[in-house]
Write a sequence for this structure.
């Protein structure tokens, strides 16, 4: 008894291509999201710290602020 493989038709190719494209896009967008997060978080943290320093200077706590800026 010889088991025959089904003929490889155009829709087999279409399904496999769609799966490959889907996986590729998923990986791409995941890496892209990680990259964007790492790109944007440090400036936001820095801006927050600068804002804290400006507020401390207004409140008369300039000593602690100057120490933080030197680090």
């Amino acid at each position: 008894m010889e088991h025959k493989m089904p003929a490889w038709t155009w829709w087999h190719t279409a399904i496999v291509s769609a799966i490959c494209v889907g996986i590729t896009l998923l990986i791409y967008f995941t890496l892209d999201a990680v990259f964007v997060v790492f790109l944007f978080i440090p400036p936001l943290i820095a801006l927050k710290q600068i804002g804290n320093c400006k507020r401390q200077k207004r409140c008369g706590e300039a000593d602690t602020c100057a120490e933080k800026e030197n680090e």
Residues 36-71 form one domain. The two ends are 78 Å apart (CA to CA).
